[in-house]
Amino acid sequence: MALEINGTTYEQDEEGYLVDLGSWNADVATALAAEEDVELTDEHWDIINFLREYYEEYQIAPAVRVLTKAVGKRLGKEKGNSKYLYSLFPYGPGKQACKYAGLPKPTGCV
Amino acid sequence: MADYETPELSSDDGLVDVPALVPDTMVGKGPYISKPEFQEGMNFPSDIEQDEDGNWSLIPNWKEEALNKLDDLRGRYRSLQVYLDICVKCGACTDKCHYYIGTSDPKNMPVARQDLLRKVYRRYFTFAGKYFPKLVGAVDLTEEVVDDWYNYYHQCSQCRRCSVFCPYGIDTAEVSMAAREILNHIGRGQKYCTEIMGKVYKIGNNLGLPQAALADTLEGLEEDIEDETGVPVKLPLDQHGADILLITPSADFFAEPHVDGLMGYAKVFHELGLSWTLSSYASEGANFGMFIGSYENMRKISMRIRKAAQDLGVKRIVFGECGHAWRVAYSFLNTLAGPFDFLDQRYPVPQHVLEITWPALRDGKLNIDKSRNDDMTLTFHDSCNVARGSRMGEEEGGQFDVPRNVIKAVCNNYVDMPADTTKDATFCCGGGGGILTDDLMDIRVKGAQPRMQALKHVTDNHGVTHMAAICAICKSQFTKVIPYYGFTMDQIVSVHQLVSSALILTGQVDEDEDGE
């Protein structure tokens, strides 16, 4: 599987996750979301940017609770819950948002 | 939600009628195949190649290796040899499998699924099969047979419900595990399991959660508990000299409602004054080595727990809410990774966290306000590996009673689901045994039908609002699939989450009373 944007090819794994995390850019996120009929809004980008920052520091996506807490702190308490995140990323914030952010998929019993 | 054909539910008696056979409804390629890099990590053969269409080959001498492995396994496990020989096709198991009930595919009848392996065994290892194969239903081992193995042995969650009803006690899970172990050795491992175990070896857990991220996550949970209660409850990591090493599934650090359960364990330990720690080296309770039938890998993962216990100098090992972690722990840990003569022998080795919480509740050592859970009416989902693969507490049937006792001690409203769907007749959540992966979503949704039907029954007739579970896989599987059946994901809760809500810590100041 691969994504073709402006003449550049981005390799994806079987599930559509980016193989080379370093090759990610904003266009890739937009294209990955478009594949699932999602149009990225500022609200999506807030989450995607946080995921990338967290990954940069810890080499893993944040736990759901870490994410909801951070969102609550940044965007207001009413948004600091999984319901809000699922409204943006209906397949699950952990997996869907990670995909758009170019991070590997969280694995295990999750 | 992606589109899957979701079976219709009725709330009449909580049981699904046995469906008429619809051959080949679940024929397919099976889950994603383990790539060479993941195979190598498991010490499995990796000389497989991908063609232009993305299909993977088997290893060059796959047929010989498959038969060698089958011969090896039947020699290693007397049980497997017996199970291959003694089935009389009585049919008692046919309608007991949640995957058969949910899919109508006859190859998901446990006897038929087992026979995919048995018919090859007969062809090469029995007198009648060698000389009169057609008379005894023996077949040659071909690539088509291997494809069927790969597909249908990943439509078995090794839950062992069929075994409860088998008059001979044939353990289907062992046959499935053997089949997967043969597949591992001919280049057809399952990506989901092998990738995850690779992370355990490299990082310490299925998630690939490194020490720094784990420490940060735990710190965040400490803050949350203190914000809520005003009590500084700790979640210690790598603390040398602690009494208890807590081994829990890494999903407890990451997912919901799992994490609420983890906070519950921490509050119980705190309130009982127990000294405990987590280990970043053994930050995983789950042992996927069992799912793929690999004794060597199951042992290697278990040895990490032993090493962590020795390195940290603990006296006890306690397991959190994880179904098959508890099966491996309760049933195999002492022979896999023992002897544990360096632990305090006055306590069970290993011990389940519920075996700490229940006696404490029973003896009134925890200050409980049950009314704090009055917004819910609970039911309990018996996890297959706990119900049929282990025990808990001192009494027979403790694995059924201890979790229920705990729920009833912290909640006023509790209703059981119909008897044919609970305790040792419990239905699998549909995601156990290495099936909890997105590429198997179709079978996961369909396999959940019997449990969903039972839940619907108690919801519609007895006002049940929430279902509690003590297994990370059950919790993740249900939160993912119940929306397909018209429920909402927050209806699934951890048992220790209920304890946590009702438990009033010494010195607790509730958020609202604090004027916040």
TrEMBL record, chain A:
Its EC number is 2.8.1.-. The keyword Transferase applies. It comes from the Bacteria. It is found in: Cytoplasm. GO terms for biological process: tRNA wobble position uridine thiolation. Keywords: Cytoplasm, Transferase. GO terms for cellular component: cytoplasm. The active site is at 109 (cysteine persulfide intermediate). Belongs to the dsrC/tusE family. NCBIfam families: dsrC_tusE_dsvC (TIGR03342). Part of a sulfur-relay system. This is Sulfurtransferase.
Automatic annotation (TrEMBL), chain B:
Residues 78-107 form the 4Fe-4S ferredoxin-type domain. The keyword 4Fe-4S applies. Coiled coil: none annotated. GO terms for molecular function: 4 iron, 4 sulfur cluster binding; metal ion binding. Gene3D superfamilies: Alpha-helical ferredoxin. It comes from the Bacteria. This is Reductase. NCBIfam families: DsrK (NF045796). It holds the Pfam family Fer4_8. Keywords: 4Fe-4S, Electron transport, Iron, Iron-sulfur, Metal-binding, Transport. InterPro entries: 4Fe4S_Fe-S-bd (IPR017896), 4Fe4S_Fe_S_CS (IPR017900), Helical_ferredxn (IPR009051).
